[in-house]
Amino acid sequence: MTEPVLRVKDIRKSFDGTEVLRGVSLDVCEGEVVVVIGPSGCGKSTLLRCINGLEAIDGGEIFLRGRAISGMQKDQHLIRRKIGMVFQNYDLFPHMKVMDNLLLGPVKALKRPAGEVREEAMEMLKRVGLQGKAEALPRTLSGGQKQRVALVRAMLMHPDVLLLDEITAALDPEMVSEVLNVVIGLAEQGITMAIVTHEMRFAEAVADRVLFLDEGRIEEEGEPEAFFREPRTERARQFLQSFTYASARKAVKGMAQGRTDGKKTGGKEAQGA
Ligand SMILES: Nc1ncnc2c1ncn2[C@@H]1O[C@H](COP(=O)(O)OP(=O)(O)OP(=O)(O)O)[C@@H](O)[C@H]1O
Ligand SMILES: [Mg+2]
Question: What CA–CA distance (Å, rounded) separates 77 from 265?
Answer without folding.
Answer: 53
